[in-house]
Amino acid sequence: MFFASDNGAPVHPAVFAAMERANSGYALSYGNDPATEALRDRIRTVFEAPEAEVLLLTTGTAANALALSVLTPPWATTFCHRHAHIAEDECGAPEFFSGGAKLTLIDGPHGKIAPDALEQTIAQTGGSVHVAQRGALSLTNVTEAGTVYTTAELSALTAIAKAHGLPVHLDGARFANALAATGATPAEMSWRAGVDVLTLGGTKNGLLAAEAVVLFNPAQAWEAALRRKRAGHLNSKLRFVAAQFDAWFEADRWLDMARHANSMAARLARGLSALPGAEVVHPSHANIIFAQLPATAHTRAKASGAVYYQSDETLCRLVASWSTTGAEVDALLAAFAA
Amino acid sequence: MFFASDNGAPVHPAVFAAMERANSGYALSYGNDPATEALRDRIRTVFEAPEAEVLLLTTGTAANALALSVLTPPWATTFCHRHAHIAEDECGAPEFFSGGAKLTLIDGPHGKIAPDALEQTIAQTGGSVHVAQRGALSLTNVTEAGTVYTTAELSALTAIAKAHGLPVHLDGARFANALAATGATPAEMSWRAGVDVLTLGGTKNGLLAAEAVVLFNPAQAWEAALRRKRAGHLNSKLRFVAAQFDAWFEADRWLDMARHANSMAARLARGLSALPGAEVVHPSHANIIFAQLPATAHTRAKASGAVYYQSDETLCRLVASWSTTGAEVDALLAAFAA
Amino acid sequence: MFFASDNGAPVHPAVFAAMERANSGYALSYGNDPATEALRDRIRTVFEAPEAEVLLLTTGTAANALALSVLTPPWATTFCHRHAHIAEDECGAPEFFSGGAKLTLIDGPHGKIAPDALEQTIAQTGGSVHVAQRGALSLTNVTEAGTVYTTAELSALTAIAKAHGLPVHLDGARFANALAATGATPAEMSWRAGVDVLTLGGTKNGLLAAEAVVLFNPAQAWEAALRRKRAGHLNSKLRFVAAQFDAWFEADRWLDMARHANSMAARLARGLSALPGAEVVHPSHANIIFAQLPATAHTRAKASGAVYYQSDETLCRLVASWSTTGAEVDALLAAFAA
Amino acid sequence: MFFASDNGAPVHPAVFAAMERANSGYALSYGNDPATEALRDRIRTVFEAPEAEVLLLTTGTAANALALSVLTPPWATTFCHRHAHIAEDECGAPEFFSGGAKLTLIDGPHGKIAPDALEQTIAQTGGSVHVAQRGALSLTNVTEAGTVYTTAELSALTAIAKAHGLPVHLDGARFANALAATGATPAEMSWRAGVDVLTLGGTKNGLLAAEAVVLFNPAQAWEAALRRKRAGHLNSKLRFVAAQFDAWFEADRWLDMARHANSMAARLARGLSALPGAEVVHPSHANIIFAQLPATAHTRAKASGAVYYQSDETLCRLVASWSTTGAEVDALLAAFAA
């Protein structure tokens, strides 16, 4: 009964198989191998973006911070939700990579930025040499609250940024879960919705350590490549990161895993709704549930061996992954209920 | 016939086996799992350093830059060899991680810093608010020239640093090869020789992507942990990095692989010495050979499918790895000779 | 009728006289002259702090950012009011000097941080490697809203910081005005109230370009000196900055000028209170007034040649200086009223 | 007998007079005043560069580091002489302002970069993602050795940089002395010789604290303005910096002062050449002399009250300024000789 995070799940066996296939003989390092090049082409195809450039990394924090550093100079501020991962969970990585750029935190219900708040905040920013200048807009889908922006919602926000001439980053640590929740295509959820740079996260969805920064504007690729090297994120044996993504995209495994995780979270949400005293806090269509439960229910669940994070006596976060089983969900619900 | 770099070699099969064993069920992420903790204890034992702290990362550049950033403030300069990896091959990662600290480049034959040059350079550094202050000494073993410092040579250099109150970093991207070449123990080649922070490199010696920063002074561990996170180098599924090292240390596999690589390089050096017109440039006891060969020899070797780096028409670098075979060495020599 | 800012006022004539007296013959540069040393001793005496170290600079932004950089590592966050100068008016200087440390913005009425809000915010900060760590508390007196913390109010806030082990910075760009408003001594308004590092501002109170960073903890002086040089803020002819402060302290001129500015603002506030449709927004005991006035009143005042900043159609900021005259105040009031 | 540095000289009285004239009434701060604008126009005229942008600062270190930061990204290296001020005397300010860019140090006799060495060094730099990229060329005139580049020599070096697409910075801390030494016009010594950004130094030539960054490519002006503010170098009462330069340019006072300083140094050099055992080390046409003298000569001079820097027992640097008198020079020579 492990619901602490999707990055605590095991790696999908097909991923190891793909890496072992990649382990035959020698290959030039640092991405100068055919597998890394082939993966770039595959991602271009998946995203219907023949010009896109792709940089492979191994952590989402690095991918986000790298993406923002090519979009914002040190004297600008990135607009993001108050509870964005870049604001709350990366120990200042965006500030470090950008050379001290700021984050402007915008409130909004259920982890989403409200268009009015975005417009108003941008309008109040910049205008003189004394203040931080307008930088990028950074959105997250699936959000940290477990909610999902529709492509229409994304487009409404990116249109505001574009009207002010600002570039847009999408933190897609759970991009596959957002696709699975909405039925949108990768292109629809990214560049067609106004996204300039995407963090495409694999590690939370069955891979070992594989993230990609997808630059829909290839003009920034060389700068991004230098920044990646300089940050120590150019892994030498890159063919093994490429291999992970190969297994991911193979026969839409990435979407199958995400759909499964989402469905396990839905099963959990349905069960919680039926529990007296339990309340699901945010509307959720993906794989993260925030729920209020009586303290006694938590005590019972923990005693039964359930692993998950509590913010306080009653509020908790429950995350399903590609490997969560219906039996685990039911056992957790039973422990809460008993 | 791949002699371009030891990081172009495949991963040892035992490493995949260990990672797959680690892939059973769930584990807390970010190093809060028993495997990561057990590895730390194993490294403490291997190095006879019960207080040491260990941070796992996936690239050597990150490990070096992180190590230096805890040893030098932004206004200091790190003393290193002119051809050190941190100076020539990391695109300014040390400057980035440290917030702009300098490197002071010291010449010396065969990739080694001469004690006199070190003493003189340190003596000329610092002393007023207008200049860069004295920072750390950074040594590399195996050096970039493929030579190996003995523990006595290391101690002579670190003693000079210590006499000036300076901390010492050792870039051990090929630490195992240095141990194999000298017969020294891990402790003798590190803290007993005056090293404060070690980059322990696994990726160039059979692992997939595994490096460790070993802090013999544990007081700096929390700062290092924050810097690692902030740089995006706290991988979430850290149990798989730990598993790689487990396979490495198992039955001294790390030393066996290093000894094998060194012996293949020795076979190559012997063969080159017997070739008319060929010359081995640096004394080498490890797995890297720099050699001068007639341009025609290079043409033949490349035509035969040999892969390695040439600096100019005649000078080349040849690197052996754990997976290099005697047949490959002999085929290369034959191609050079024919 | 110039009420745009106290830094638009002329320099007090005595300041030029002092600088010209200092202009006799040669002097060692970079502060190695007797005048700079004598000023340091004078500031120690004025603040009853015989151990304090003093660094002279020429801008308040530099003084603030330098002060914070010695108090917070790059991975920490400084707690400050949402409208603090360091947050809103320095184009990210604190982030630049600190290497990317964050600011955590705390709300509070009338430009002041409420103790409860401070306690709660600190309590919610830090605790894991994923988040920004607790850094310094930065207070401002006179606040950006023109209000003044009493020494008791300051002490209540610094006590909270100290209870969490955090150092305290005071932005005293208008420190003299705060002293004049409260009657506190320099020591009472600084180290006795828990302040570790003070930005002592002279430029807004009659000097040409003179600020001092006063470090009550001298252990940080050398680091601060290196950071000052590295930021290009070690002026060579420092005797002329020292001379400005000499004229300032002479016969309590600094307090006289501040008292005068405060009294002119009080006269303005009294006049505004008597005007129909006018409202003074914040309680003010210093030299800054925020006021709501009918748009027509602003039109009339501007037409009469008044210079000041408007935030919107009705809200304005009016700043008095050492050189503001009663006649100017009355003329402005008349223009508003007419 | 003060020959320690030209920045230890007094301020020219006309400079104070100009500042006091500027001290009438109120003025908008931060350069939004007519005097600052008028000075910009004057510098455009002086340099025959109607598009140039001008940023005023108060230290040469800040001006140099700011200039370089707009010319080089963090992953590039600036090419400069091994003994350049930016390399040896600024405590890493260029690294700080640029976010960690490197300096590549080039040797060359008498403080000058040899064209061949520049070409060769640039050619060896860059080319892969692993290394620092080619950044700016930074030259210094008058050099740190007291020698002067002719405009032809400057052009030869900048042509090499331009051929590689690199921008050029000129550290003109003693720009007026270089003009006086060569008879070149300001335009000939800057943009016509291929300089993109000039540090125009006033402080070493009679001003109190006044430097200008002159951007001949105005496209970079806004970035430079933001960087200046962010570094705390946007002084509020900028009219007084402008006033200093007004006094400087008035009736070519800057050139008169520089010519005088140069002529005093020439008198000193002539005298030294006639002294038994004395040797002038570098050819000098400006205001700095490096000389070898017997240790006993130094002992006598110091005993006579002479102030200057010695590098070792015999080598010294002697700097003349606008206020050096012939009597002082002769007294120093007499002390050396006696």
Automatic annotation (TrEMBL), chains A, B, C, D:
Cofactor or coenzyme needed: pyridoxal 5'-phosphate
Gene3D superfamilies in the cross-refs: Aspartate Aminotransferase, domain 1 (3.90.1150.10), Type I PLP-dependent aspartate aminotransferase-like (Major domain) (3.40.640.10)
Domain of life: Bacteria
Catalysed reactions listed for this entry: L-threonine = acetaldehyde + glycine; L-allo-threonine = acetaldehyde + glycine
A GO BP entry: L-threonine catabolic process
InterPro entries: ArAA_b-elim_lyase/Thr_aldolase (IPR001597), Low_specificity_L-TA_bact (IPR026273), PyrdxlP-dep_Trfase (IPR015424), PyrdxlP-dep_Trfase_major (IPR015421), PyrdxlP-dep_Trfase_small (IPR015422)
Keywords: Lyase, Pyridoxal phosphate
Location of the Aromatic amino acid beta-eliminating lyase/threonine aldolase domain: 3-291
Enzyme Commission number: 4.1.2.48
GO molecular function: threonine aldolase activity
Function, in words: Catalyzes the cleavage of L-allo-threonine and L-threonine to glycine and acetaldehyde.
Assembly mode: Homotetramer.
Family, similarity comment: Belongs to the threonine aldolase family.
Protein name, as recorded: L-threonine aldolase
Organism: Pseudotabrizicola algicola
Phylogenetic lineage: Bacteria, Pseudomonadati, Pseudomonadota, Alphaproteobacteria, Rhodobacterales
